[in-house]
Amino acid sequence: MESSPIDSSSNASSGLSSSTSSPPHSDRDHRQITLTVTQLEQLKVEEKVSEIYRILSGAPAHTQTLMLELWRDKHIEFLTRGLNQLGPTYRVLDANRPWLCYWIIHSMALLRESLDIEVENNAVDFLSRCKDINGGYGGGPGQLPHLATTYAAVNTLVTLGSNSALLSINREALREFLLRMKDFCGAFRMHHTGEMDVRACYTAISVASLLNILDFEITKGVGDYILRCQTYEGGIAGEPGSEAHGGYTFCGLATMILINEVHRLDLTSLIDWVAFRQGLEFGFQGRTNKLVDGCYSFWQGGSLFLIQRLLSIAENQIKSLPMSIEQEQLSMEGNVDSAAFTVPKPDGSQRQIHYFENKDAGKGSATGLDFIRTTNGGPLFHSIALQQYILLCSQVLEGGFKDKPGKVRDHYHSCYCLSGLSVSQYSFSKSADSPPPPNAVLGPYSNLLEPVHPLYNLVLDKYYKAHEFFSVMS
């Protein structure tokens, strides 16, 4: 989920120098301050963003309104063109074709743009050809099934929303695929013998929750793994011992909500870490001391949007004295029982794995529905300022969105900038279904997008239909 790396062509050796007075006979007449590549890039970004904001502040009111307008028609044109035909430069994304479907189709749904029936049928047919006979979806027809592209494919089919799209999902085979990807430690692997991380846990749990196949067999041990990934800073890393990251923090937090174990996270330090990732440009950075990036408008903004509904848990954590692991386990109001299972070791001996049985496991579908009915607190980030960054610094007037000034547009950033714009607009709403007040939407009120379900990043109406469709299936 990381954006493009910093341009290595920057001159890391250049810096700012200043002369200082030295004692007599000193062999140092001045000191040289050398900036890192990231610091130099940060200064460039700050300069570009400051110039954009200076133009806005000095413009007449009518011009400001035009500058803050969401260029809906241009975005739809860019997205439609991408859905029909992509150029040769997209060959590097051959193993991500379900993602391209999701990024584009979800973006169009946010913009309230419906698809032609022929395009919709073609999308269902293509994703069906990406489906593995033994469950899961690959990056393209005939490719290895992978949890990330499975998540993208399922979200795309739910966004399409037709009966043919939803019926094309083989729930039984997909459940078997999820179980094959599950490691004995409780976490998931992205594909057969692939990497194991928080992203894999989220995509597996999100899919299982959406399709109403979430049960204890799928959820056992997942919470323990994610707890090991929460860092000293408060954010969540991709795997134990790594650095906290915005995309993984969203994935870990959403997963813990879906499996009813979010109270086990240190929410107070998580709030601090995410909130301080909103920089002076008003957008979010993905990691400490990194550059702002438009895609984190959703990954970080979405995490804070989720936490708005968890403030009572965070407040209780603040009031509580620190507890040992054993005390925490006993405090979970009878919803957790200790259990264990045995796995063979390479030397022929056996290893006992302890885990905790969540008696509410298997209610993930209901959790997703109940969560958006929870009373909404006020936003934990500057939502208007974030909208300003998205509209002025990430929006491309010819259509689409980009990482930051100086970068180029793409479908990934278009999807997550629009998703971030939506959660920003609805951050003051009293409920998931209620429209935000006019002063919560920057620019003309016509900028208002469709609301998203923050746990799955699906347009809310599309989620409701899928929930109803799969709830009747056992």
UniProtKB/TrEMBL annotation:
The keyword Metal-binding is annotated on this UniProt entry: yes
Catalytic activity as recorded in UniProt: L-cysteinyl-[protein] + (2E,6E)-farnesyl diphosphate = S-(2E,6E)-farnesyl-L-cysteinyl-[protein] + diphosphate
Signal peptide residues on this chain, from the entry's feature table: none
GO MF term set: protein farnesyltransferase activity; zinc ion binding
Biased composition regions of type Low complexity, renumbered to the chain: 1-24
Keyword Cell inner membrane: no
Protein name: Protein farnesyltransferase subunit beta
